[in-house]
Write a structure and sequence with these properties.
The chain has four helices and no strands. It is mostly helical. The radius of gyration is 17 Å and the shape is elongated.
Amino acid sequence: MNKREAAIVSAYTGILIGKFDWMSKYVEELLGRPVYTHELANKEVVEQIRNAARKDFCNIEITDDDGSETFDEEYKRRNAFEFAKGKQ
């Protein structure tokens, strides 16, 4: 996981991993404005952040360190095979 991905996970889940500064910069980029720390206690602002970060969160690529096929890749491959056979 890189710093940006850590910021994305932190913004989406509300659980800080990595440095606060990484998440803070990502959130400001996401919302297009300065975000002050006291705003992170506001449920509406937290929901805005979560909604804005959802796409980035869902697009985080999952890979194995050794380059082998991940569960997600295997699942997609198997589903494609079953779909082609008509076994949805």
